[in-house]
Amino acid sequence: MNSTQQWQSVTWFEVDEHQAGQRIDNFLFSRLKGVPKSRIYRLIREGQVRVNKKRIKAETKLEVGDQIRVAPIRYEQKDETAAPVSDSVAQSLLSRVVYEDEGLLVINKPSGIAVHGGSGVAYGLIEALRAATGKKYLELIHRIDRDTSGLVMISKKRSTLKLLQDMLREHKIRKTYAAIVKGQVSLDSVVYVCPKKVSQVKPNGWLQSVLKMPLWFMHRRYQVVLIKFVYMV
């Protein structure tokens, strides 16, 4: 049975203790072999993937005992295959690893590469690292935009993935961004309060994202500031 035929009927999965805490999109990537990631995201958006009979989002975290239903997948499999990761790309990425232990890998992602493949993207950082290291289990702990460079944490163990994602969700790990600002900021530190609707945090409430911008470097025509996000309900 080829991958096109394999998923043409309803498919069920049950989440066990080793899979708990994983995002639904990452869970499906590893199980729906041969199905493009863009197609999986479309299934999620259209409600064709249900967890415990409910619609979900790509970032939904799974729990032990969750029942996952995937509607029949019908698509024409393209003949072309994803572009292979060249040796030069693999070596370049490996040279950017700044920390590694038995459960965690931290890499300084360059600008211009997406963290994962998708529509119009043959491969991303995570696929390239799997190819470069030969490790099948490598999972993104978080994401940054394609055009943003900076540190990305990659888990090598399921327990590390769950631990660090929980810490991010509880704001025990803070992210800091360096940004170039045209002109000059008049104060050494500027605080912006940006309301954002987040119903999961507080029903019908707002989450305030506070951007703290201490001055890092000054030039006659621009400044470089460090941006830190602090969330307050």
Automatic annotation (TrEMBL):
<dbReference type="InterPro" id="IPR006224">
    <property type="entry name" value="PsdUridine_synth_RluA-like_CS"/>
</dbReference>
<dbReference type="InterPro" id="IPR002942">
    <property type="entry name" value="S4_RNA-bd"/>
</dbReference>
<dbReference type="InterPro" id="IPR006145">
    <property type="entry name" value="PsdUridine_synth_RsuA/RluA"/>
</dbReference>
<dbReference type="GO" id="GO:0003723">
    <property type="term" value="F:RNA binding"/>
</dbReference>
<comment type="function">
    <text>Responsible for synthesis of pseudouridine from uracil at positions 955, 2504 and 2580 in 23S ribosomal RNA.</text>
</comment>
<comment type="similarity">
    <text>Belongs to the pseudouridine synthase RluA family.</text>
</comment>
<dbReference type="Pfam" id="PF01479">
    <property type="entry name" value="S4"/>
</dbReference>
<feature type="domain" description="RNA-binding S4">
    <location>
        <begin position="22"/>
        <end position="77"/>
    </location>
</feature>
<dbReference type="InterPro" id="IPR036986">
    <property type="entry name" value="S4_RNA-bd_sf"/>
</dbReference>
<keyword id="KW-0413">Isomerase</keyword>
<dbReference type="GO" id="GO:0160141">
    <property type="term" value="F:23S rRNA pseudouridine(955/2504/2580) synthase activity"/>
</dbReference>
<dbReference type="InterPro" id="IPR050188">
    <property type="entry name" value="RluA_PseudoU_synthase"/>
</dbReference>
<keyword id="KW-0694">RNA-binding</keyword>
<keyword id="KW-0698">rRNA processing</keyword>
<dbReference type="GO" id="GO:0000455">
    <property type="term" value="P:enzyme-directed rRNA pseudouridine synthesis"/>
</dbReference>
<dbReference type="Pfam" id="PF00849">
    <property type="entry name" value="PseudoU_synth_2"/>
</dbReference>
<protein>
    <recommendedName>
        <fullName>Ribosomal large subunit pseudouridine synthase C</fullName>
        <ecNumber>5.4.99.24</ecNumber>
    </recommendedName>
</protein>
<dbReference type="InterPro" id="IPR020103">
    <property type="entry name" value="PsdUridine_synth_cat_dom_sf"/>
</dbReference>
